[in-house]
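Lesson 9: reading folded outputs for more than one chain in a single document. The general rule is that every protein is listed as its sequence immediately followed by its structure tokens, and records are never interleaved. Here is the first one.
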Amino acid sequence: MAITDKGVSFLKEFRDFAMRGNILDMAIGVVIGGAFGKIVSSLVSDIIMPIVGKICGNTDFKDLAYTLQEKTDTAEAIVISYGAFIQTVIDFIIIAFAIFLSMKLINNLKKAIIKENKEEATAEPPADIQLLTEIRDLLKENQKK
């Protein structure tokens, strides 16, 4: 089976798409985000929730549930595990807060860089550049005469 020019062109176009910086950056962000999510989940379930449970009277939030129907010979129990939901909400709040802080830091750095670039652009040129500019302007005036 021969690969046609269209097939080669399609594969080249796909390779160019997949290797663009934005796609690679996004993939790296997803992997790091997943790892960060696991760290936060462990922080919440293994450190924060036991402390909250102790404060709330030795309650293990993982065990908090409401049983709608007990297990029978023919059917499984129907249980609403609201404790796990509480842990997931706390996970989300911590992750959202960490992302907020990260974005705030990045935005502040961008603003500082932009401000620094503007200051550099508006700064007076060095003396040798000013002298060369004056010489250029004088030569232009002499050519007009």
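And here is the second record, again sequence then tokens.
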Amino acid sequence: MIRSALATLALASTLSFSALAAQQPPQTQTDDYTRYELQERGSGAFHIIYDVTATTAGARYFYNGIRAGAEEEVHSVTDLHSGQPLAWEVVDGAHARANGHPRASLDSRFIKVTLARPVPEGGQGRVRIDKTYWDHESYFDDGEDIVFDRSLGIRRNAVVLPLGYELVSANYPVQVETEADSRIRVSFMNPGPAGVPLRVRARPLQSGSAAVRPPSTGERVPSEGGGSPVRARVNYVVSERAFEDRDITYFLQQPQTNSFRLFHDYTESREGMDRYVNIVRAGSSASDPEAYNLDTGARLEVEQLQGAAITAKGIDIGGEADAGTEVVVIWFEPVAEGASTRLRIWETYTDPGRYVLNGDDFVWDRNFGRARNTVVLPEGWRLTANSIPGIIDEMEDGRTRIQYINPRPDGIQVFVRGHRR
């Protein structure tokens, strides 16, 4: 009888635990970026800087899974909005399930981060986790070479070689740059739904052969030799595309309006900066602007200025404003030292040159310079053509969505055609 009672109590506790977990919304996140800094050969150690944004409204905690097979040391956790440290602890899966991460694996361990504030509705909680892993299965010696061989599920990643090593091979398309301290960095963006089985091989440099990154002057110099001079970008510094965190989403309105609603997410980290200036693209006009501080959920002051009013207000647009120049200015509290502000800017654009109704079809033909862009087709229309490869899915309301991830530092000319359903 006692055993039966205990079993009943255990079953009731399990059911109660499951019901509690089921009532909680799942943990959601965005804008993940990971930087792996490989440590000395033979150590199996890599220092990790992990930036992530919690997006579950009301969440007080964020859980970062610790990969099985690795030993970890957490150095610090930082709130990226304020630059201040956050409290953290390592917990098991049962604790995570009961306290804000209902889908946590019971077999896993997690770094539990106490957020600076509950995630605001429609807002975010931005976190940086600084840690070191020891994992000889992922980072090991192979003769004189070192190899980093690890499946990376995060979409934006960088791997930094130890000082004094050259890159021998990388099995996934990567950017390569020499950092200011002469270490080699490889980085990439993964546009697909699965993790990347990354394998990077490096070899010790001969003594005294380490590269030094040239200063970035922006100058071009002519090549030597006959023929027309070719002006190479000899001091060009490769911008790490994977680290860029700007993204934009376009919601196409009915094509006869030539209009689309968009929001643009941007992080301002320059100390003392108190404004964001959006210069409206020539041929377009902007209306209904609104902006939010995603870190706090606060709505921000917005101004639309044109021509001489831009100069009178002291707004720097990198040149002279003429009568046709139009800007949208978003004002916010000056950024403190070591802090940053994440902005979301909404606008409606009308652009009869790039978004048009052509017979029974709509045509969208626009250049995207940012790494991440999303286009949502207007309600009642189906996709019939798309020039740049993108991830295509259906939203809950039935509209078609196309996500473009461009790992290259240049723009893409996106052509989309649709037909009424």
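What the second record shows: The chain has a mean pLDDT of 91.
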